[in-house]
């Protein structure tokens, strides 16, 4: 694997790693285990997609983002807010390098140097809006499996367990450590606990940059506050955290370092939270006393309803403001002051290790999840018994030709009933997509492990169904009682 490097910010003198405090493990070179605080910046970011030509889009292009510029430094918690369709999730996906279609213009920099995809994925993690978890595992089991799939192979099992226990404490999951995540058959974690577990999974690799898409979506106010309190604590560990959020409460709003207000793919404001009220007041929009600033600003930029502000005026005023100029100066300073660190090898477990971990996880999930085998097996047993007794009280002279429909039934029913496992396949697919994007899961290891793990259950179902049908039919044909 070719070496890549992480540009070091001039102000980032402290080097930290998840391995620094772990005794009795193989020593990594400084280049391979260094995690530097990272500054993420982007300039004149424009994203367009192809659409059908119309009077509104005569060129067949639609701009989702237009000239977006911003900068997030270590220790800062940045909130990206805006009405639905404002482009905030698209911006986060582009920053996370998860956009594969359309045209992206502009530049994205990591510590002042053009972002390298491999480098960025080595130091960042992305938490999607939907929780992609397997319901048959407990919190500690989920974290341990995730750690074994993402951390380097040289890290011992004991070290992984210690790291998992540390993350459980950091995210306040100790109370539900041995609770199943839960699925349609069993009640498990609450929405807030699932959200914290999703974040905890990405913290196992000690990312310098954490990107969260709607971390409070679907949560009540208490759970929202708890989740964001844990997220803000990560910033005190010198991490760079960017999240999209819908209309935070006043308490949550005060946790943010920077506020981004977007509408129609344009930046209305990007800067320190303390300066946003003055920025809008200068445009003639003073936030009423005792009103949540986030609610007020979002109501101003929501063009779907009457009473919104002059959007173009707000965009132009911000573009010419000292706040925007300061961000540009900081981006230029990052570029001018950058120097390159020693090469860093993005480390991940071997394909063989991932294969064995996936085999173990799939076998456990197949046994614990009733919907994968056990419900289907019960249905096969009942229907096989019904079909196998079709010839009771009939002529006992059953030929081999009469047995053909029975055997055909067994094969056809096995095929048709395989659709019953589709809901759980969708769950596993979501987990696979997350692990593939964030931890570089080996596709070949996943496919082979999944294939081998399902063979015992399929063999059991096929053998029991065939044996029961044939046994009952033969017993009937020979005149014995059933």
TrEMBL record:
One Pfam assignment: ABC2_membrane
Gene Ontology CC, one term: membrane
Subcellular location: Membrane
Main subcellular location of this protein, as a coarse class: membrane
CDD domains the record matches: ABCG_EPDR (cd03213)
Keyword Transport: yes
InterPro entries: AAA+_ATPase, ABC2_TM, ABC_transporter-like_ATP-bd, ABC_transporter-like_CS, ABCG_dom, P-loop_NTPase, Plant_ABCG
Ranges that cross the membrane: 373-394, 406-426, 446-474
Listed name of the protein: ABC transporter domain-containing protein
Biological classification of the source: Eukaryota, Sar, Stramenopiles, Oomycota, Peronosporomycetes
């Amino acid at each position: 694997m070719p070496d890549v490097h992480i540009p070091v910010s001039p102000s980032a003198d402290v080097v930290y790693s998840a391995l620094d405090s772990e005794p009795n493990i193989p020593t990594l070179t400084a280049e391979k285990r260094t995690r530097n605080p990272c500054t993420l910046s982007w300039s004149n970011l424009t994203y367009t997609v192809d659409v059908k030509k119309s009077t509104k889009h005569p060129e067949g292009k639609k701009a989702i983002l237009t000239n977006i510029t911003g900068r997030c430094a270590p220790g800062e918690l940045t909130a990206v807010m805006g009405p639905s369709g404002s482009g905030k999730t698209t911006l986060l996906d582009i920053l996370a390098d998860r956009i594969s279609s359309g045209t992206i213009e502009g530049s994205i920099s990591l510590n002042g140097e053009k972002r390298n995809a491999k480098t960025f994925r080595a130091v960042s993690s992305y938490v999607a809006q939907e929780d992609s978890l397997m319901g048959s595992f407990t919190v500690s089991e989920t974290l341990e499996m995730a750690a074994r799939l993402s951390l380097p192979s040289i890290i011992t099992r004991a070290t992984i367990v210690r790291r998992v226990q540390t993350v459980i404490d950091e995210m306040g999951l100790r109370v539900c450590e041995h609770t199943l995540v839960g699925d349609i058959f069993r009640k498990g974690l609450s929405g807030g606990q699932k959200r914290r577990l999703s974040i905890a999974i990405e913290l196992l690799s000690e990312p310098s940059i954490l990107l969260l898409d709607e971390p409070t979506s679907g949560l009540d106010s208490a759970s929202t506050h708890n989740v964001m309190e844990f997220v803000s604590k990560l910033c005190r560990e010198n991490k760079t955290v960017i999240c999209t959020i819908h209309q935070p409460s006043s308490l949550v709003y005060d946790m943010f370092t920077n506020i981004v207000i977007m509408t129609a793919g344009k930046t209305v404001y990007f800067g320190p939270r303390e300066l946003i009220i003055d920025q809008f007041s200068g445009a003639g929009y003073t936030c009423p006393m005792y009103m949540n600033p986030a609610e007020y600003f979002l109501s101003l930029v929501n063009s779907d309803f009457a009473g919104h502000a002059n959007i173009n005026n707000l965009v132009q005023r911000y573009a010419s403001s000292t706040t925007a100029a300061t961000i540009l100066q900081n981006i230029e300073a990052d570029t001018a002051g950058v120097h390159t660190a020693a090469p860093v090898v993005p480390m991940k477990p071997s394909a063989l290790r991932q294969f064995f971990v996936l085999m173990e996880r799939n076998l456990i999930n197949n046994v614990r999840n009733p919907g994968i085998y056990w419900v289907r097996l019960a249905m096969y047993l009942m229907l096989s018994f019904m079909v196998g007794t079709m010839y009771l009280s009939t002529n006992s002279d059953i030929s081999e030709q009469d047995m053909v429909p029975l055997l055909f039934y067994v094969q056809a029913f096995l095929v048709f009933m395989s659709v019953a496992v589709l809901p759980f396949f969708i769950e596993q697919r979501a987990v696979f997509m997350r692990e593939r994007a964030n931890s570089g899961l080996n596709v070949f290891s996943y496919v082979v492990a999944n294939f081998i793990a399902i063979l015992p259950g399929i063999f059991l179902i096929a053998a029991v169904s065939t044996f029961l049908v044939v046994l009952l039919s033969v017993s009937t044909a020979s005149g014995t009682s059933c």
